Amino acid sequence: MTSTTRIDRRAFMVRAGALGGVAVAAGGCASVSTSAGAPAKPTGTPRRGRQARNVIFMVSDGMSTGTLTLADMASRERTGRASAWSRLWGIEGARRAVCRTHAADSLVTDSSAAGSAWGIGEHINNGAVNFTPDGRTPTPILVQARENGFSTGLVTTTRVTHATPASFVANVPSRAQEGAIARQIMDRRLDVVLGGGAKHFPGSLLEAHADATVVRTAAELAGATDDGGRLLGVFNREHMSYELDRPEDEPHIRDMTRAALSRLSSRADGFVLQVEGGRVDHAAHANDACSLLGEQAAFDEALDEAVRFTMGRDDTLLIATTDHANANPGLTLYEEPGNTGFERLMRGRRSFDWIGDQLSAAGSPDEVMGVLPMLVYQATGVELRDADRAWLHRHFVDHERADGFTAVSGFGPVLGAVLANSLGVAFVSPNHTADMVEVTALGPGSERLAPTIDNIDLHALMVGALDLRAAGA
Q1: Is the CB of residue 338 less than 8 Å from the CB of residue 130?
Q2: What is the model's pTM?
Q3: Residues 296 and 166 in one domain
Q4: How far apart are CA 273 and CA 95, in angstroms?
Q5: Which of 22, 41, 91, 290 has the highest Cβ tally under 10 A?
Q6: Domain check: are 305 and 405 in the same one?
Q7: Burial of 383 by CB count in 10 Å (0-12 exposed, 13-18 middle, 19+ buried)?
């Protein structure tokens, strides 16, 4: 964690590259400023190959541009260098695009429709997973890859049966059918699956797939031997914990990514791996700025693992993107309030989930208001002022709307809005947005990435890079 020393504004702006030290170069490459303002020096350059042998598809679910910016600012302040994602822009041959994210039935997409755009290359309705409006079930990308002899894997901080990981492997009319998704994950024989969602893998399902090794803790993952068989890691009954709350027995997304890459790269014929920082999205929904920064920073460490794997190779296509923006957060206070708020933000200790769990022991609304200020201080370091308490009283005790926009009247948005006065980060809503999103690609096939794309184009990019054939072709 960062020091509690107050940020000097001039020094901070230098360290942060004046928040504008990224210049897009010809061909989609970029020159990235380090903390001293000099161009970044990549440790190597991926050699150019005609065909990809591996694809690593990195997803920071629900990542708005503001989320990416906050994590980059924090990395520069904490480590003196840009985030892994920003440094990726400075590597020779890296390509960037902005991507449209709509669904078939909605200008604002959900994760299942957006992920399915990658999974099958078609727009479908919100709520479905690789299940088209006319009832077809095209073959998802990991199933197609396996039919072509590739190994396959999923890593996520959500339940492994959640919408985004499911979009690469399953076909169901509703994303809520997570039991069916779990069965398809096992029946379709993915080689590595790591994340949460243990409740959807009952003993009867695991007994039917006795060849798969099952691990349930970080220590078991670290100690698992690679015998060439399948590996299922389920480290929480539900989603994995937020990074601010993560217990020692749950592995970091960086370590899950490293383990998946190690196992899959030992296979003979290449692999396709999706890695999802899924709780970035959840923190954005909750308008929980401290957790949002923690989740994006953790994902950035996983991305760094993927970049390290890709560098020096001529056979791996790396894609980093998000399925949609969410809540559009941004540091929005000027000068000292903004600088001090960002310093507090980086010292966040617990999530809104943790606060909610502690509040569950309280009885009446008045009891909630009696303990809430203490819990907020323990989680964020922010001491609520009388005006802040009045807004929260309006929500918890008076049950009144705290804003003219109905969507921001829940617990998370109300608390997030109050904390914006002290942390400096405000949110537009607790919902996904229709914004274009960032795509960065490196390696064989990345040269096909156009500057502006539709989300379905990434499916074609992967298929073309790997030269995948349809079943029976």
Answers
A1: no
A2: 0.90
A3: yes
A4: 20
A5: 290
A6: no
A7: exposed
